[in-house]
Amino acid sequence: MTASTNTHLSGTMKAVCFTEPGAPDVMQIESLPIPQPGRGEVLVRVMAAGINRPDIMQRKGLYPPPPGANPRLGLEIAGEVVACGTALADQDMPAIGSKVCALANGGGYAEYCLVPAGQCLPWPEGLTAVQAAALPETFFTVWSNLFMPTPVTKGENVLIHGGSSGIGTTAIQLVKAFGGIPYVTAGTAEKCALCETLGATAINYKEEDFAERLRELTKGKGVNLILDMIGGAYLDRNLRSLAVDGKLVIIALQGGAKAEKADLARIMTRRLIVTGSTLRARDITTKSRIARQLEEKVWPLLADGTIRPIIYATFPFADVAKAHQEMENGEHSGKIILTLESTPKPQ
């Protein structure tokens, strides 16, 4: 790490833009000036970018970016650092020419992307650009919700909804790597099979009541922790699935923001915790802290092959609308990635 600077790059870049919310075809590739890094920022020449559910929601007009965030789409990238702004106090900056993967505050669907330096992580050795780009959004989300501030401990039962998703496949592997016992829900036999190859016990939610099945699997004890991206539609069953002193963490609302029924007395009598979070609105200091924990605790597991990103499909940058449609179809397992490896180097 170094405080090298390269203050100005001239020229333009290609970037995905849209002016009105709507279907995938509202996105267009436009030519924009290459952005210049400010204090504490680095400019990354993007080689691959991850597609995530928040991108879909933002494109539809259902998830506006927080104040100060880049309004364009794209929250995770992998690429080469080509310029650095002035370092903040006590801040290390990635070296120009180094390869990184990074959690972006928007604007990742582009040939160049500005990222706070603290949100960059080393590109893990042995991984391709596609694999590196599949890491930041999912690993930041899973780590911050399941391992901060209290980590999953050996022998704890953890239920992960959407087990075959990018977040789900990441959570299974991290829970297992740190000694937890992962259970998941998924909607097809194929998705369940994938989750089981990663070390989880899978429940097909279309065929079984997951709360009843978990009671059988855990001999009536329940699970200690639930990572939930469904929301209202699952609230009552989630509460019934938790062990005494269990915790429910809600990170998305794909099943709605409201629950028609839930036994709130269960929260009191079993001392349950119900909480939730979003990642994008968190401040740079918090995201940087997550990044440093990942680098220390998780990146060695990527380097030695203990865990790996699961890639479902890649799409050329020009086919971004097809990539969004693929995610919306709901058939994927693992990550969907845009490739930009032909991004020109700056002059």
UniProtKB/TrEMBL annotation:
Chain ranges of the Enoyl reductase (ER) domain: 22-338
Molecular functions (GO terms): NADPH binding; oxidoreductase activity, acting on NAD(P)H
Organism from which the protein derives: Acetobacter tropicalis
CDD domains named among the record's database cross-references: p53_inducible_oxidoreductase
Keyword Oxidoreductase attached: yes
Name of the molecule in the record: NAD(P)H quinone oxidoreductase
SUPFAM superfamilies the UniProt entry points to: GroES-like, NAD(P)-binding Rossmann-fold domains
Gene3D superfamilies (UniProt xref): Medium-chain alcohol dehydrogenases, catalytic domain (3.90.180.10), NAD(P)-binding Rossmann-like Domain (3.40.50.720)
This protein's UniProt keywords: NADP, Oxidoreductase
